[in-house]
């Protein structure tokens, strides 16, 4: 708690008498008093009145949130449907992994393999 003294001497006297004083409650538990100077010696001002206090119910974002809460939730798909969906996505991803660079590299590899096959055929014809 905060106490306000009229004179500095009264504050010092109170501090010397009650700092470390032991108080016992009804259950017999002892508590030691701690007397310190307040870091800010001024009284707190009256709290400011917030102009937006109590206006959230009229807010459009809050209203749309409430509408979303009132809507019935869509039922979750069964685990089998989830697995089928994931497998379909994986298959689609594998088929869509071609890029122009990959296509160029595949064509170049095929061309090299055809050249090697032609060279082997020529060597076989000579022998």
Walk me through the structure.
The protein is mainly alpha-helical. 52% of the residues lie in helices and 5% in strands. It is built from four helices and two strands. Strands 1-2 form a two-stranded antiparallel ribbon. A hairpin with a 5-residue loop joins strand 1 (22-24) and strand 2. The radius of gyration is 42 Å and the shape is elongated. The N and C termini lie far apart (110 Å).
**Can you tell me the overall shape?**
elongated
Tell me, rounded to a whole number, the average pLDDT: 87
> What is the terminal-to-terminal distance?
110 Å
Helix percentage range: 40-55%
Helical stretch tally: 4
- Find the count of extended strands (DSSP E, 2+ residues): 2
What fraction strand? under 5%
Class by alpha and beta content: mainly alpha
Largest sheet: 2 strands, antiparallel
Q: Give the ordered list of helices and strands.
A: HEEHHH
- Arrangement of strands in the largest sheet: 1-2
Unreliable parts:
none
Radius of gyration: 42 Å
């Amino acid at each position: 708690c905060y106490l306000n003294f009229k004179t500095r001497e009264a504050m010092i006297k109170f501090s010397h008498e009650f700092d470390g004083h032991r108080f016992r409650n009804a259950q017999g538990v002892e508590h030691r008093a701690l007397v310190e100077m307040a870091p800010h010696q001024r009284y707190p001002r009256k709290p400011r009145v917030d102009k937006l206090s109590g206006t959230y119910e009229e807010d459009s974002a809050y209203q749309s949130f409430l509408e979303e809460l009132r809507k019935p939730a869509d039922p979750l798909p069964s685990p089998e449907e989830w697995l089928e969906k994931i497998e379909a996505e994986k298959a689609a991803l594998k088929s869509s992994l071609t890029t122009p660079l990959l296509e160029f590299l595949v064509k170049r590899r095929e061309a090299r393999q055809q050249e090697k096959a032609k060279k082997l055929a020529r060597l076989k014809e000579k022998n």
